[in-house]
Design goal:
Length: about 220
């Protein structure tokens, strides 16, 4: 796999279940060490840097299933990211629903509120790289829109974002570039404007449909 995510850009990584999307996230975040190849951050080899080391260098992972501590309160969760009260007050000003329930345990929040709690601190201190694995998983459409607005703001602040999604429609609305992953390999990568329906079909089904017409059969070929 050869994949580059640039500062101030959203790269959408699409593919079916089992394609290797979560594994890619874990390798990029340092949770898995590749047997071969290298992981670079701003031109430096960080292949053998631990997840903690990479986090301190500005590489953050927003894992599938929310990145919060459910037994802690909203305010305690925010304090872990933002020890300065001024920063937390800025988050509460932006998200009054969190402010009104700051003493409530994060595990009692809805899935959408938990995702906003996980992402909100990043707006105050944008990371160099954010790796988000299925950020819209299980969320209502209204909350999905808000999540993608937050991710777009991080992009505008200069963060390099690698977003993994199975639902192509939502992520194609914010992505700058798109990569298709199939069986652990990038089958195509390019600007969002060049995404075609047949490429999307191939990425998700592993087949490329041939056009039907007089004298032609409609059949599927393996890429």
């Amino acid at each position: 796999m050869d994949l580059t995510v640039r500062a101030g850009e959203i790269l959408a990584l699409l593919g079916p279940n089992g394609a290797g999307k979560t594994t890619t996230c874990r390798v990029a975040a340092g949770l898995l060490t590749p047997r071969t190849g290298q992981v670079h951050l701003a031109g430096r080899d960080v292949t053998h840097h631990s997840p903690v080391h990479r986090s301190r260098e500005g590489v953050l992972l927003a894992p599938e299933g929310r990145g919060i501590f459910p037994a802690l309160t909203i305010d305690e969760n925010l304090t872990l990211h933002l020890p300065d009260r001024t920063d937390r007050d800025a988050v509460y000003g932006r998200f009054p629903a969190l402010a009104a329930r700051r003493t409530v345990t994060a595990g009692s929040l809805s899935g959408g509120e938990q995702q906003l709690l996980a992402l909100a601190p990043l707006l105050q201190r944008p990371p160099k790289v954010l790796i988000a694995d299925e950020p819209s998983l299980g969320l209502a459409p209204r909350v999905v829109d808000e999540v993608f607005r937050l991710l777009s703001e991080l992009r505008d602040a200069g963060t390099a974002l690698l977003l993994v999604e199975e639902k192509a429609a939502e992520i194609l609305g914010v992505a700058d570039r798109v990569a298709y992953l199939s069986q652990g390999r990038v089958s195509w990568c390019g600007p969002r404007a060049e995404v075609r329906a047949d490429r999307l079909t191939e990425a998700y089904l592993g087949i490329a449909a041939q056009p039907s017409g007089p004298g032609n059969r409609t059949e599927a070929t393996r890429p």
